[in-house]
């Protein structure tokens, strides 16, 4: 019975890990579609799909005559895993880059590296595929000599996509390893249950194996959590890349809102959900023309109506993801007000989630205090005045009082608005 309990616990952990797998697949789908990838369902995500879709899009964007991915193999060497075009040309360029040290130099930079090709006419594009913990490989593309000038948005795109692809490749590798470990463990348990005598002989070995596998599964779950946060953060950065004036806005709102959530009595886990919602609360702005987002003057009525669509657009993008928290609903409600004067639904009172109320206060404090295209930052004093004037009508009184207390801290600006 003791070992049955251990096995049940491991099955529960494996089920949890598989659920994380499905969750990351859905987040990946959002990132892929945001970058104009074709639809990839959770059941079809594989190393070949990730490499193929990523290579096809990046090669087309940069108009490469040949392009490929060099992945790190078991012997820490780089081998050509997937390519389009002339593989021999890619190999010849790689040997030259290895010899002059350019290949190794590019591995240490998390941004595109552009070099003259050996023919003296074409351009070689190098970009490492890296996660926060390891380098998965290198992209090598040869751009035609008649290709036009590269835009900053092109270079930013390739960094976001290749680093996201690296995170997914690491995740798939990790999940395959854990699945193999679990199958090995299940086989061992089946053998040991054949007889009581064999169970006695193997019990010490099984205990060590269970402890090892439990530790590995816990480590896998922790690393998968980091992958999820990294992908969510990448989603937020895609929005902010279109509007340099609000760069860092979502991160600052997430920090303030999650702190307020804890101060008004939400649990640590609920506050983490508020933080995740804060990181992507303006994701819907990707559907709004950049000219409106960066307009250096007051918006007209039609332009403001377009901006008001972003909470609903964000909800539509996020609702298919099974977050452990109501992230999509909080994103949709972060511009609602207690008296029903907000948008997009005109919700009031208890119809608005507490997490969304925290986001609303954090959003207005950050917006008033920070610079915008049409005005300089108005400062903390204006933010305090706004909260006091609309306490109880627009904003939740408990959240306002918590925020006013937080803003009395002399380090508030440095900790939350820098």
TrEMBL record:
Q: Does the keyword Lipid biosynthesis apply?
A: no
Q: Which PANTHER family match?
A: CYCLIC DI-GMP PHOSPHODIESTERASE PA4108, CYCLIC DI-GMP PHOSPHODIESTERASE PA4108-RELATED
Location of the HD-GYP domain: 224-418
Coiled-coil regions listed: 178-223
Tell whether ATP-binding is among the UniProt keywords: no
Keywords attached to this Swiss-Prot or TrEMBL record, sorted alphabetically, are:
Coiled coil
For this entry, the protein name equals HD-GYP domain-containing protein
Q: Which SMART domains match?
A: HDc
Lineage, top ranks: Bacteria, Thermotogati, Synergistota, Synergistia, Synergistales
Q: Identify the SUPFAM superfamilies for this entry.
A: GAF domain-like, HD-domain/PDEase-like
- Organism annotation: Dethiosulfovibrio marinus
């Amino acid at each position: 019975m003791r070992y049955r309990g251990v096995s049940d616990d491991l099955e529960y952990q494996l089920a949890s890990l598989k659920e994380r797998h499905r969750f990351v697949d859905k987040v990946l789908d959002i990132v892929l579609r945001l970058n104009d990838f074709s639809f990839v369902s959770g059941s079809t995500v594989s190393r070949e799909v990730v490499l193929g879709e990523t290579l096809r899009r990046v090669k087309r964007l940069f108009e490469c005559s040949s392009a490929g991915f060099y992945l790190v193999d078991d012997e820490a060497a780089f081998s050509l895993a997937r390519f389009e075009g002339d593989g021999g040309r890619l190999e010849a360029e790689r040997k030259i880059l290895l010899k002059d040290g350019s290949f190794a130099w590019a591995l240490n930079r998390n941004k595109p590296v552009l070099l003259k090709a050996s023919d003296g006419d074409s351009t070689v594009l190098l970009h490492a595929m890296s996660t926060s913990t390891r380098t998965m490989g290198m992209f090598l593309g040869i751009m035609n000599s008649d290709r036009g000038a590269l835009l900053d948005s092109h270079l930013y795109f390739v960094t976001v996509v290749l680093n996201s692809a690296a995170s997914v490749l690491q995740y798939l590798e990790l999940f395959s390893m854990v699945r193999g470990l679990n199958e090995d463990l299940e086989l061992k348990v089946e053998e040991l249950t054949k007889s009581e005598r064999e169970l006695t002989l193997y019990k010490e070995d099984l205990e060590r194996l269970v402890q090892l596998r439990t530790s590995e599964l816990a480590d896998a779950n922790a690393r998968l959590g980091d992958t999820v946060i990294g992908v969510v953060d990448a989603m937020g950065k895609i929005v902010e890349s279109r509007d340099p004036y609000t760069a860092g806005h979502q991160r600052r709102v997430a920090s303030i809102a999650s702190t307020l959530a804890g101060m008004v009595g939400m649990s640590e886990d609920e506050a983490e959900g508020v933080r995740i919602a804060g990181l992507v609360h303006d994701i819907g702005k990707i559907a709004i023309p950049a000219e409106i987002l960066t307009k250096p003057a007051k918006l007209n009525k039609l332009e403001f109506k377009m901006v008001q669509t972003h909470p609903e657009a964000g909800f539509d993008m996020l609702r298919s993801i099974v977050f452990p928290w109501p992230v999509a609903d909080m994103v949709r409600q972060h511009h609602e007000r207690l008296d029903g004067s907000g948008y997009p639904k005109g919700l009031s009172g208890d119809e608005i989630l507490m997490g969304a109320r925290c986001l609303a206060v954090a959003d207005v404090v950050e917006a008033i205090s920070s610079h915008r295209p049409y005005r300089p930052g108005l400062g903390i004093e204006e933010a305090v005045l706004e909260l006091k004037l609309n306490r109880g009508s627009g904003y939740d009184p408990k959240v306002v009082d918590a925020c006013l207390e937080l803003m009395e801290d002399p380090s508030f600006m440095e900790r939350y608005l820098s």
